[in-house]
């Protein structure tokens, strides 16, 4: 297993190396997620990630490239539940898409396991332009454009973004800034008021 | 003028001291705003603010108290344009309040002079719980509750917060994360789509 701690060289990898590589890669990715979550993008270093994963920095570079690329890989994993949103959207009729999307995203924020990494991403994206760019690429390409793809309307992308804005704002005020009464309001009460707005942005004429 | 750099003592202040005090206080406040904007809440220190203002740390404590209190005073100034929103809301009929509020808040974000300090506050509030608490107090007490006070409805505060959520989300995606096409869309196009939503949250049955 320790062979995997050596960067892969040209030529056919040894059997041990091929088998161990995913485990090492996952360990680095896990460490990266923890480091970015705790320290934010700016204070996290490739060296720190390597140390937390118990490997050499060179191996982090080998598997992922630059710090920006490690971040992208880490948030892609942390953000995976949210990136499933388009599937949730596609999974039903268009006239109830607002409610499905609202329930889906509030569900991710309500669950502490998925909320923590999401919060870390949002914090990094708000504070650092490189992190914002990574977040933007990921959200735009994998989430908003796929939701927009479901709408047969000329301004589908702007619609998807304004719907997302309502949900992002609710998440900010409820889970990050924690403004009352919104922070303690029953989820169903929020769905009741927010779902029609999301629906309207997406499909109203 | 340099007398003002000495903390005020008990007893009647000298005439020079009384006259100079507002200037010194303003200088500290200005330095605090700059420091918090550049470094964020966590990395800013009372000592750093004092140094930037050219005064002793004791004087900063004398005028404002703790770092949290300096922050509160600084964001109150930086946030002053946004805190005028309730006036903008009150200044016209209730059935066009959504458009007035939307135009007013987008106007603040469109103007780089008011956007920069606002962005610094948002960054600090997202990253630090103490800063978030200060932001929450200020926004809740001075902005949302005053807007809610205009609505004669039982759930006025939740309504004001959901309307704010739509506007906060647009600001996040357009000015902070800069997702396209929203980031480059014409303001009028955004007002056209967002104002009815804000209006709906505030006054729809």
Q: Overview of this structure, please?
A:
Chains A, B: This is TetR family transcriptional regulator. Chains A, B: InterPro entries: Homeodomain-like_sf, HTH-type_TetR-like_transc_reg, HTH_TetR, Tet_transcr_reg_TetR-rel_C_sf, TetR_C_16. Chains A, B: Pfam families: TetR_C_16, TetR_N. Chains A, B: GO terms for molecular function: DNA-binding transcription factor activity; transcription cis-regulatory region binding. Chains A, B: Keywords: DNA-binding. Two copies of one chain form a homodimer. The first copy, chain A, has eleven helices and no strands. Chain A is mostly helical and 205 residues long. Chain A has two domains: 63 residues, Homeodomain-like (Arc Repressor Mutant, subunit A), CATH 1.10.10.60; 125 residues, Orthogonal Bundle (Tetracycline Repressor, domain 2), CATH 1.10.357.10. In chain A, helix 1 packs across helix 4, helix 7 packs across helix 11 and helix 9 packs across helix 10. The longest helix of chain A has 29 residues. Chain A is elongated and about 55 Å long. The termini of chain A are far apart. The N terminus of chain A is likely disordered. Chains A and B meet through helix 8, helix 9, helix 10 and helix 11 of A and helix 8, helix 9, helix 10 and helix 11 of B.
Topology:
The structure is a homodimer of 205-residue chains.
Chain A: H1 15-43, H2 46-53, H3 57-64, H4 67-78, H5 80-83, H6 85-90, H7 97-110, H8 112-127, H9 129-150, H10 156-176, H11 187-203
Helix pairs in contact in A: 1-2, 1-4, 1-8, 2-3, 4-9, 7-10, 7-11, 8-9, 9-10, 10-11
